[in-house]
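The pair is listed for reference:
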Amino acid sequence: MGDNWTTIESDPGVFTELMTEMGVNGVQMEELYALDNESLHAISPVYGLIFLFKWRSEQDNRAALNESEYLGKVFFARQVITNACATQAILSVLLNRPDIQLGTELTNLKEFTAQFDPELKGLAISNSESIRRAHNSFSPPQPIVPEESRLADKDDDVYHFISYVPVDGVLYELDGLKPGPIRLCEATEDNWLEKVGPFIQSRIERYAQSEIRFNLMAVIGNRTDVLGQELASLEARRAAMLSTSNKDGDQMEVDGTSEDSSQELASVESEIVRVQEGLHQEAARKKRWHDENIRRKTNYVPFIFHFLKLLAEKGQLKPIIERAKTLPAKQR
């Protein structure tokens, strides 16, 4: 069985690039701070939600579905290896949405495991070298690797990812630590985001007295693509309006519709500026994500060791250490 899956940071830039490295096209991750209609409409289409919370052992009286109730409809995999829950939660969304371009690797995985039980699906994910390699590429370099991994105890903070996704008119909670999917309610593509809110809020309220660290992210359509399509539509609309205006200018003056047309054209121009600004912001954000991911993947330890060695050879390291010892604790 595949091993050595490392923890990765819960970050939209990390998860977006992770999906890209797994071969998925046309999607990105977006961090959510609210579930109101206006906020969600601004980032549509939304394919699924991923919720991060501090895990604790507790009894869950909700019944998980039996395999016969969802096999062939819902892709559900048990988590059979530690540290893989982030990637597994992402896959729970990606592999349950036929409108997402999965790419060759994940398409083959989905088809190959279609009739597997949840345990075998989890094993297939854990043994996928390409998925594990993409996942581990975002782990911070460690100068000292312990020979044995220590199991978390009751004093450690353990965080877990679960997914919420609509499939064939039903909203599901997919948690790899459960024996099967949790059927939440009936939901359509148009209303599932309205219906999922109370379930997430209820989970937050269960921990509210002792925990405030939660993270909610959405798998959405690539914003550059979405905004690009919107811009093309607006520009086509503007061109049609200008063409009509040039042809019918005299008649529009007679009918008194010239002012209305000018206002409509001004409104379209304003929308074009808004979308163009959105594209510039998105490009800047994706560049920032890319730069941050490069820093995450870079091992600076050899440079630091070499730099300290040079300081020592030039006789500058010891004076720096001695000077640091004389500084107040807050300035060190």
The first strand starts at residue 27 and ends at 32.
